[in-house]
Amino acid sequence: MRTFLTAALAVAALPGFTGTANAQWEWPLRGQVITTYRNVDDPYAGGQHRGIDIAGQVGARVAAAAGGEVRFAGTAGSSGLTVSVRTTDGFDTSYLHLSSVSVREGQLVSAGDALGAVGVTGSRSASEPHLHFGVREAGTRHAYRNPLHLLP
């Protein structure tokens, strides 16, 4: 493990290194990614999936991937029970299909703080219980990002 960390630090120190994972971010749920991110330039094209689905048991703890302010906590149409957090580094993150919510709008959270629990609410792209985790540039409607590029 020490060799891996030393090598990782050496690579990060290279001039021009622009790693995609952000050290301030962490996985909101430990589990297998069962549906990957798919997005195209046309925001209205079919077949897109603007986030990742992470498998988990109903009731499993969902944590904030990055610190910020809770912008929404409640039911959001076909997304089901949802939490949205605007991160301090300029992203709007969304956590969909929850069974419960443990935060309120306006609350400040840190990476790793509990937001709620995995559920099966709303219309889901996979039938098994999972967390849909999405990321977009703060304040935009269509500037989605692949969450895997931000997670460590």
Could you walk me through the main structural features you see in this protein, from its secondary elements to its overall organization?
The protein is mostly beta strands and 152 residues long. The protein has one helix spanning 2-12; strands at residues 33-35, 52-55, 61-63, 68-75, 81-87, 91-101, 108-109, 114-118, 130-137, 144-145. Strands 1, 2, 3, 4, 5, 6, 7, 8, 9 and 10 form a ten-stranded antiparallel beta sheet that branches. Strand 4 (68-75) and strand 5 form a beta hairpin. The protein is globular, with a radius of gyration of 16 Å. Residues 1-20 have low confidence and may be disordered.
Sequence-ordered SSE layout with sheet pairings:
Blueprint: H1 2-12, E1 33-35, E2 52-55, E3 61-63, E4 68-75, E5 81-87, E6 91-101, E7 108-109, E8 114-118, E9 130-137, E10 144-145
Antiparallel strand pairs: 1-2, 2-9, 3-8, 4-5, 4-7, 5-6, 6-8, 6-9, 9-10
